[in-house]
Design goal:
This protein is of the alpha/beta class. The chain has 8 helices and 8 strands. 43% of the residues lie in helices and 13% in strands. Helix 2 crosses helix 3, helix 3 crosses helix 5 and helix 4 crosses helix 5. The relative contact order is 0.09.
């Protein structure tokens, strides 16, 4: 058995798919994984995959052309999801690989994610839905704050790597703004400048206190918003359980109007 160890990213996994396909070892004789194994198995050869933009782009084009843009986006969202391997025995990278193989073998690759009878397809569908659901939540719950330097900044703590989705959305909605979305959990950030595409950067060097250095006007607007939030509330209709369903508690620490009731 040949085990391809991939980087946990779109480029890393797509490169792994390319290398596994090109290896000619036979699809039954190999598998992909995103983590270094804790214990090595007998009779397995481990191959570390070096991410390659060129190889990744070839797989991206092939998937888009054969399966359609929508399926390609779903596969990318599955890769962006956090794979809870302790809870599930199917490795994310291998499920992506098997799903792509099935799509190429089908008469109509656009329908590959409807083959939910296959465990690996069901796993890809589940992961894609998890990322999409969380991104949808954050598109409504994300709050920007104006820093003293004039930049609009937001800090989030998502389970999945949803920054590319958020970056595309807010770049389209706020094309003339300078903004920063900082994913503190994954230590990455989206940077946007007026009239330019957003970029994803390594944010491990960001100081958390920098994100709290807000302008005087921002503090005033926060107080006004919290006052409005409290004034429209009807005490007799308080329903904390429903509130937690509409805005899950893990988003509260990043939501201005709920920070005082955590």
């Amino acid at each position: 058995m040949y085990v391809f160890i991939c980087e946990n990213s779109i480029e890393g996994i797509f490169t792994g798919v390319y290398d596994a396909w090109a290896s000619r070892y036979g699809h039954r004789n190999l598998r992909l994984t995103i983590e270094e194994p804790q214990t090595y198995e007998l009779f397995c050869e481990y191959i570390r995959v070096v991410p390659s933009p060129e190889k990744s782009q070839k797989i991206s084009r092939a998937v888009c052309n054969s399966f359609g843009r929508e399926v390609y986006q779903d596969i990318c969202q599955a890769i962006m999801a956090t794979d809870t391997k302790k809870r599930h025995r199917l490795d994310k990278a291998d499920c992506i690989y098997r799903t792509i193989l099935l799509g190429f073998a089908m008469h109509d690759g656009h329908q590959v994610l409807t083959a939910l009878g296959e465990p690996y397809v069901a796993r890809v569908f589940e992961l894609a839905r998890s990322t999409d659901r969380e991104a949808h939540h954050l598109l409504g719950f994300l709050r920007f704050r104006q820093l003293k330097n004039g930049i609009l900044a937001s800090t989030i703590h998502p389970k999945n790597d949803v920054l590319p989705i958020l970056g595309e959305h807010f770049s389209d909605r706020l094309p003339q703004e300078r903004f920063l979305i900082y994913d503190e959990l994954h230590q990455t950030a989206v940077l946007h400048t007026p009239g330019a595409p957003f970029i994803l950067v390594d944010a491990s060097g960001i100081r958390p206190e920098m994100m709290d250095d807000v302008s005087t006007e921002e503090l005033q607007f926060q107080r006004l918003w919290c006052t409005f939030f409290d004034s429209i509330a009807i005490e007799a209709r308080r329903n904390p359980k429903l509130q937690s369903q509409n805005i899950p508690k893990r988003f509260w620490k990043d939501t201005v109007e709920l920070q005082q009731i955590r």
